[in-house]
Amino acid sequence: MTQSAVTASRDWQRTTADLRNGWQQRQLWGHLGWQDIKQRYRRSVLGPIWISITMAVTAIALGILYAGLFGNELGVQLPYILVGFIIWNFISGCLAEGSEVFTSNVGLITHLPAPLSVHVYRLVWRQTLFFLHNLVVYVVMLVIFPQPLGWGSLLAFPAFGLLVVNGTWVALLLGIVTTRFRDLLPITQSIVQLAFFLTPIVWIYEDLQNSANPAIAERARIAELNPFLHFVEILRRPMLGQSFELRNWVVVLAITVVGWTVTLIAVRRYRARIAYWV
Amino acid sequence: MTTAVGIETQDACVDFPIFDAKSRSLKKTVMGMVGGTIESGSRVPIIEALRDINLTLQHGARVGLVGHNGAGKSTLLRLLSGIYEPTRGTATIRGRVAPIFDLGVGMDPEISGLENIVVRGLFLGMTRKQMESRVDDIAEFTELGDFLRMPLRTYSTGMRVRLALGVVTSIDPEILLLDEGIGAVDAAFLEKSKRRLSALVDRAGLLVFASHSDEFLRELCDTAIWMEHGTIREHGPLEDVLASYRDARR
Q1: Fewer CB atoms near the end CB (10 Å): N or C, chain B?
Q2: Do A6 and B84 touch (CB under 8 A)?
Q3: Is the pTM for the entire model greater than 0.90?
Q4: A275 CB within 8 Å of a chain B CB
Q5: Structural domains in chain B?
Q6: Which of B105, B65, B63 is nearest to B83 (CA)?
Q7: Where in chain A are the domains?
Q8: Complex ipTM above 0.85?
């Protein structure tokens, strides 16, 4: 925790130092992230399985419902919804908790001179652990509804990596903005909820695109404008053994670059202000 | 480290913006931009918590902080720890800082005392290994015995203070910043923790200690800073500062 000059608190060196020093405190946020998870099942009998069971129950119920509504086979609809759900849980966790990342840590921020990124890493790490918990359900699903996994499925690893990298900037940026403007918090929460319906998680986007009704097919194209679609797709496609779609990756990479650029500028300008704002 | 432990501030100021519901709101800010300024007094009010702080503290300094409530003692400690970066001026901090402003911060009521020892140590910049090697020593000092395996929420206030003091006094900081608030422990234990506290101070390269207790200050410090209205009123040998502080209060 060695600190040095605070001459120009808005310079780039201090910005990268915050991210780097935060990363060096892996032991701290790694431990805290685990602790957060353990907290959820501390006094429960089922323990860690709880996290996955609640998710699985919702996904299965929705799978059966929408398979019936759309007239799809359960073996198609259920895995689609389940995998989409697992991915969405990660994305929405980063968004929803990211907008509280500093305001919920007031005590720590005003009592300890830790880099701000520590709180963000802890959050993303916690969401990653949730994701890994939920993979258990995915594995069970693979046994019941085998998917045509191949070498292309290995793309799931870089895809998840991209989700983590993006989750980090999203949490940092949202954290800064919502600390200054408190009324953004309920707004982000409702946007996350809305995005769940706008993103093809329960409805199968390709089915609509190939719809016999040209008007529906046309409208389904609009869904491509939703950035969340691309984030879900880069990971869901390999997890379900579907083919590689370049445009999803291009969009995600572009968002990664733009998002981090904006975030670094925001961190440079407002990093030192957070302790004053909370 | 190439440079020695030390803290240096030049004309450092800490200004707090006081946001009310209106200025916290994005809507109002945006509307304000569009419509132009209607009220001239719509700027966010600012509290000058610290003004023009010039300090040079080097290795070996044992500084006490005195001043009445709201004089800026705690804010100064936060400035010196790097939590608040000065809004104007500069503050340079060299060394590993252990700020101890609140014994309970970073403690989790749901996990056991033993786990809390490790977590609290990590917060103070120690590694897990360092803390694990200190656990026995801390356990012995706190006299909590088997209670250390119980969740912290089962502890009484006094027991929590014991645990927190045990952890806090076990670390090896380069810069130690202490805000008083050590109470709720029985007399015998306090005597024991005093000894540990002075041992801690001896290990630390630099100490800044805010307290209302002359006795404590005399025990740990040799110089003192008298804070008033967010500025340094006097900085000098402990007894001189204490004397003029007491005179002014009369």
Answers
A1: C
A2: no
A3: no
A4: yes
A5: 6-61+68-95+223-249 (no CATH), 100-210 (3.40.50.300)
A6: B105
A7: 9-38+46-277
A8: no
